[in-house]
From TrEMBL:
Coiled coil: none annotated. Its EC number is 2.1.1.10. NCBIfam families: PRK09485.1 (NF007020). Residues 11-329 form the Hcy-binding domain. It comes from the Eukaryota. PANTHER family: HOMOCYSTEINE S-METHYLTRANSFERASE 3, ZGC:172121. This is homocysteine S-methyltransferase. It is an enzyme of class 2 (transferase).
Length: 343
C-alpha cells in the first residue's frame, strides 16, 4: 500500500474497506520476543533484538500474520538514535538499525504473502487480506527504560523543544523507511501528542500516522492529562488517520472509546495489554493479574460496536489472542459488513 500524496485519511478508509470494515492489529511484540527466549533486560528493550536476534523479530511478525493480523508493528518502539549511540553505534549505524526494523517487518509480510496467504484465522478472507506495516515510535518515556511511559512524568526540564529535538530525526528516518504508516504508541501525556503533531506538520511527513494513548484509570491518559484533550490534538492533525488506546487494561477500553468518539470521527484503534500489572522496578509482569484470552476476546464485539475499527493486543497478548480476535471480528463482520465507524 503506497503512501502517495493524496488525502491521508483516504488511505485508511480504503484499507478498512478492503479489510471488510474492521482490521486486526498484531499483539505484543516485546513480550512475545521474551516468550521466544530473548533477554530484554536492557535499555534498548525490544530494540536489542535488532542488534542480536533479528530472526526472532521476523518470526514474531510471521506468527502474528499467520494468526490473522492486518497490521504488523515494527520493532522500533524503543529504538532511538540516542539509545543506539549510547551503546557505541555511530549515527549512520543507528539510523540503519531504525530502518532495519521496518525492513524486517516488510520481509515478513513478503514471506507470508508468498507462502502462507491461503491459511490463517481469517478463513477465505485471508487470501486477499490487506497487510500494512506500521513503524512504531515509542515515547520519550520508553527510551528512559524505567517504565516512564506508564507515568508520563518527565519533569520540567523536558520541554516541547527538547522532545521535538529528541524525536525529529527518528521520525524522518522511519517515515522514509518504506513503512505504510507511523504508529505513535503508548503516548503518556498531552505534551508528547503536541510534539508529534507539530513534527508531522513541520516536516511534511508523507505517510499517515496513528496516535495511541495509554490510560490507567479509564478516563485520562497515564499522566493525568485529559484523554479528550489529547484526542482533540490528534483529531486536528491532518496526518493522523486513526486515534486510540494501547497497553491499557481491557476493562477500561469501552469508556475510553466513547471519550474519543466525543471529539473525533476518525477511525479508532484499540490494542489493550493483557491487563496484567507491570513492575517497572523489577521489569517484570505480575502473572495471573490479567484476563484470559477468552475474556479479552469477549470484549471485542463491544469495542467494535462502540466504534473501534482497528483491534489487536499489546504487551502480554500473544498470537493466540490475535487469532481469537480475528475470528471474533470475522463473525461481527458477517453480521454487520460495514463497520459503524466508517462514515
Ligand atoms: C510497556 S512497558 C512494559 C515498556 C518497558 C520499558 N520501556 C522498559 O524498557 O523496560
Ligand atoms: N509495539 C510495542 C508496544 C509496547 S507498549 C510492543 O508490542 O512491544
Ligand atoms: Zn504494551
Amino acid at each position: 500500500m503506497g503512501s502517495g500524496t493524496g488525502d491521508p485519511s483516504e488511505m485508511m478508509h480504503d484499507f478498512l474497506r478492503q479489510a471488510g470494515g474492521c482490521a486486526v492489529v498484531d499483539g505484543g511484540l516485546a513480550t512475545e520476543l521474551e516468550a521466544k527466549g530473548a533477554d530484554l533486560n536492557d535499555p534498548l528493550w525490544s530494540a536489542k533484538c535488532l542488534v542480536d536476534s533479528p530472526h526472532l523479530i521476523r518470526k514474531v511478525h510471521l506468527d502474528y500474520l499467520e494468526a490473522g493480523a492486518n497490521i504488523i508493528i515494527s520493532s522500533s518502539y524503543q529504538a532511538t538514535i540516542q539509545g543506539f549511540e549510547a551503546k557505541g553505534f555511530s549515527t549512520a549505524e543507528s539510523e540503519a538499525l531504525l530502518s532495519k526494523s521496518v525492513n524486517i517487518a516488510c520481509e515478513a509480510r513478503d514471506i507470508f504473502q508468498k507462502c502462507f496467504s491461503d491459511e490463517g484465522a481469517g478463513g477465505s478472507n485471508s487470501r486477499k487480506r490487506p497487510i500494512l506495516v506500521a513503524a512504531s515510535i515509542g515515547s520519550y518515556g520508553a527510551y528512559l527504560a524505567d517504565g516512564s511511559e506508564y507515568s508520563g512524568e518527565y519533569g520540567e526540564e523536558v520541554t516541547m523543544d527538547f522532545l521535538k529535538d529528541f524525536h525529529r530525526r527518528r521520525l524522518q528516518v522511519l517515515a522514509d523507511s518504506g513503512a505504510d504508516l507511523i504508529a505513535f504508541e503508548t503516548i503518556p501525556n498531552k505534551l508528547e501528542a503536541q510534539v508529534y503533531s507539530e513534527l508531522l506538520n513541520e516536516n511534511n511527513i508523507e505517510i499517515p500516522a496513528w496516535f495511541s494513548f495509554n490510560s490507567k484509570d479509564g478516563y485520562n491518559v497515564v499522566s493525568g492529562d485529559s484523554l479528550v484533550e489529547c484526542a482533540s490534538i490528534a483529531d486536528a492533525c491532518k496526518h493522523v488517520v486513526a486515534i486510540g488506546i494501547n497497553c491499557t487494561p481491557p476493562r477500561f477500553i469501552h469508556g475510553l472509546i466513547l471519550s474519543i468518539r466525543k471529539v473525533s470521527d476518525k477511525p479508532i484503534v484499540i490494542y489493550p495489554n493483557s491487563g496484567e500489572h507491570y513492575d517497572a522496578d523489577k521489569k517484570e509482569w505480575m502473572v495471573s493479574t490479567g484476563v484470559s484470552d477468552e475474556d479479552f476476546v469477549s470484549y471485542v464485539s463491544t469495542w467494535h460496536k462502540a466504534g473501534a475499527s482497528l483491534i489487536g493486543g499489546c504487551c502480554r497478548t500473544t498470537p493466540r489472542t490475535i487469532r481469537a480476535i480475528a475470528q471474533a471480528l470475522n463473525l461481527a463482520q458477517q453480521v454487520s459488513p460495514v463497520a459503524s465507524s466508517l462514515s
